């Protein structure tokens, strides 16, 4: 072997060794020691997103309401929006209290995900007061690094809604312990579902054979409880018999049975056949849809006879039967839920004792009734003279009898005139009234809404000297303008002769209305057309309005107290309090931020290392090529 061959072989060995060293360096950079990598870190983090799909209504539209007691179907969807594979994903669905018949199964999965088995889905049933839980573990869901779209798993949940106004199911997911969730804040979701009660149309009807019966007769009622809806109705049936004037001596016999015309199951047993009158029927049943329960009620009411002193006709007593239907809370009833049938019951005829009968009373003639004097002594028939009225003699002031021939003859002119005090007036004492001595009146004009007083009326009565006046009539209403009914006045002249006069009244309109006469139906005026008024309500003219400058307007504090000039303090800018600093944004936990920074840093370093390796290998290959060409030219 010549020298050139040995040199070329040694050069080739050095080149191979250089390439191996470069490859080892790249691998060492790509795979750092375990001490530099966090134990909980993953090559690519995951991002789990839960969804709770509610009921699907008509036309495929999602609804946010359900029906109380009705069946429901929910879909629990868990998808992976991260790059890495999410393994052993756990989920927890909180089932609202009162929910029953809950079942779960895996309904659908994408190509790169796996469903849990039915044994891996655990259901803890809910009670009436506490929520239940549906839990499970999903084996794996691939990330976006290995799939072009998000992979997911769908769990179908069925059950029956509780009887409440609304429910709020809550779904939460969590990755495995060694995985990192880049957005843990969206790992829980909740939905508010409003529940509507079931509405069932029902009807209650009562029929009776005879409304008016006598005591001891049997009364027959037919009560029908009908369910006219499409859903079963859990209800409570009630029936009650009542009397307007019950007594402890009354006797009642009742009977309640189901008839053959009923299409609903009969809830009555042998022990319910003879109930008490105040509760003929009180039972909880479930009326199936489009069925009716027909009940036959028979009542025999006996009222015992009573003894009184006189015979009287028996008075009928009102009686009635009331039937009703009430919901147990699971459905809402519409229609006729109550009915009442009224009637009357006539008691037995009253009997009368023998001692009080009419034939036992003695017959007394009117002539046998004795007559008594003023002193209480019985008057004898012969002591009572019968004297005609025309034969009664006149008596003098001394009580002596005056003969008819001595009676004076009195003409109408001789009848004396008496004053108001009862004294006889002589001809000289009779008053003489001249034409000018009679009272007169003038027109009383008052403004609208004013008050008419007695003194104001007397000012318009002109009476002679010595006369007195008295108001005898009512005052007219002054709320509307125009001529009113006059005020009646009685004028008594000095001679004692009363004379009645009337004071005419006229009401004239005004341009303002006092506040006490304002009503809600008053006319609205623009502000610029309302005239100003003084404190007493009189309108003010433009010349009488005071001039007020802005400096005269007082300044008031928040408590309504006037501020004077010294009280207005000036604050320098240095004493103005500074605004509160804005709240700091919520910080991401240190461990999460470190994990994200490590992930970004690792990606950048990896790219730089790969680029460095490519450059080193390219440089080595170029050097080898140049060296080979130069050796070949030498040979």
Account of the protein in words:
The chain has 635 residues and is mainly beta. Among the domains are: 48-196, Immunoglobulin-like, CATH 2.60.40.740; 199-346, Immunoglobulin-like (Sandwich), CATH 2.60.40; 437-508, Immunoglobulins (Immunoglobulin-like). 12% of the residues lie in helices and 32% in strands. It contains 3 helices and 32 strands. It has helices at residues 3-30, 454-458, 590-634; strands at 48-53, 65-67, 71-80, 86-95, 100-109, 122-124, 132-141, 151-160, 166-167, 170-174, 188-190, 193-196, 198-208, 212-214, 218-227, 233-243, 251-258, 281-287, 291-302, 317-327, 331-336, 338-346, 417-418, 424-425, 440-441, 444-447, 461-462, 468-471, 482-492, 498-508, 555-556, 562-563. The protein has a 5-stranded antiparallel β-sheet, with no helix packed on it. Strands 17-19-15-13-21 form a 5-stranded mixed β-sheet, with no helix packed on it. It is elongated, with a radius of gyration of 58 Å. Mean pLDDT is 75; it is low at 1-5 and 32-42.
């Amino acid at each position: 072997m010549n020298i050139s061959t040995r040199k070329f072989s040694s050069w080739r060995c050095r080149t191979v060794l250089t390439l191996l060293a470069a490859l080892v360096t790249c691998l060492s950079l790509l795979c750092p020691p375990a001490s530099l990598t966090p134990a909980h870190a993953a090559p690519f983090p995951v991002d789990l997103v839960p969804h709770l799909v509610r009921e699907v209504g008509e036309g495929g539209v999602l609804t946010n309401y359900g029906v109380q007691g009705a069946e429901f179907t929910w879909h629990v969807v868990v998808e992976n929006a991260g790059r890495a594979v999410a393994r052993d994903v756990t989920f927890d669905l909180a089932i609202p209290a009162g929910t029953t018949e809950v079942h779960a199964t895996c309904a659908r999965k994408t190509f790169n995900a796996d469903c849990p088995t039915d044994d891996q889905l655990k259901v803890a049933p809910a009670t009436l007061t506490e929520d239940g839980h549906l839990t499970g573990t999903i084996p794996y869901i691939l990330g976006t690094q290995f799939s072009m779209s998000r992979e997911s798993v769908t769990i179908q949940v069925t059950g029956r809604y509780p009887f409440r106004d609304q429910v709020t199911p809550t779904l939460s997911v969590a990755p495995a312990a060694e995985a990192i969730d880049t957005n843990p804040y969206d790992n829980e979701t909740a939905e508010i579902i409003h529940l509507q009660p079931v509405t069932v149309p029902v009807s209650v009807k009562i029929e009776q054979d005879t409304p008016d019966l006598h005591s001891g007769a049997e009364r027959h009622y037919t009560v029908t409880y009908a369910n006219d809806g499409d859903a079963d109705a859990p209800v409570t049936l009630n029936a009650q018999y009542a009397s307007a004037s019950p007594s402890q001596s009354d006797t009642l016999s009742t009977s309640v049975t189901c008839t053959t015309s009923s299409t609903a199951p009969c809830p009555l047993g042998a022990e319910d056949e003879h109930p008490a009158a105040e509760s003929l029927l009180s039972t909880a049943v479930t009326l199936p849809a489009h069925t009716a329960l027909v009940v036959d009620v028979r009542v025999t009411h006996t009222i015992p006879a009573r003894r009184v002193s006189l015979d009287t006709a028996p008075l009928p007593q009102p009686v009635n039967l009331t039937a009703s239907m009430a919901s147990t809370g699971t459905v809402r009833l519409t229609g006729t839920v109550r009915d009442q049938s009224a009637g009357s019951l006539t008691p037995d005829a009253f009997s009368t004792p023998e001692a009080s009968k009419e034939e036992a009373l003695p017959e007394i003639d009117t002539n046998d009734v004795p007559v008594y004097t003023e002193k209480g002594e019985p008057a004898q028939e012969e002591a009572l003279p019968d004297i005609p009225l025309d034969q009664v003699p006149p008596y003098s002031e001394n009580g002596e009898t005056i003969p008819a021939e001595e009676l004076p003859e009195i003409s109408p002119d001789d009848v004396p005139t008496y004053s108001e005090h009862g004294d006889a007036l002589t001809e000289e004492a009779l008053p003489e009234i001249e034409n000018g001595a009679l009272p007169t009146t003038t027109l009383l004009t008052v403004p609208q809404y004013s008050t008419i007083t007695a003194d104001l009326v007397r000012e318009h009565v002109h009476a002679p000297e010595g006369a007195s006046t008295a108001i005898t009539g009512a005052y007219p209403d002054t709320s509307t303008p125009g001529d009113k009914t006059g005020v009646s006045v009685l004028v008594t002249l000095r001679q004692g002769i009363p004379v009645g006069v009337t004071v005419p009244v006229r009401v004239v309109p005004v341009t303002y209305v006092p506040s006490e006469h304002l009503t809600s139906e008053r006319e609205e005026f623009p502000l610029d057309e309302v005239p100003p008024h003084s404190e007493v309500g009189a309108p003010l003219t433009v010349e009488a309005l005071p001039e007020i400058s802005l400096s005269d307007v007082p300044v008031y504090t928040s408590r309504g107290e006037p501020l004077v000039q010294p009280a207005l303090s000036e604050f320098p800018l240095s004493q103005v309090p500074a605004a509160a600093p804005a709240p700091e944004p919520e910080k991401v936990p240190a461990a999460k931020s470190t994990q994200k920074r490590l992930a970004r840093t690792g990606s950048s370093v990896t790219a730089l290392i790969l680029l460095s390796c490519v450059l080193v290998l390219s440089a080595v290959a170029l050097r080898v090529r140049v060296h080979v060409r130069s050796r070949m030219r030498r040979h």
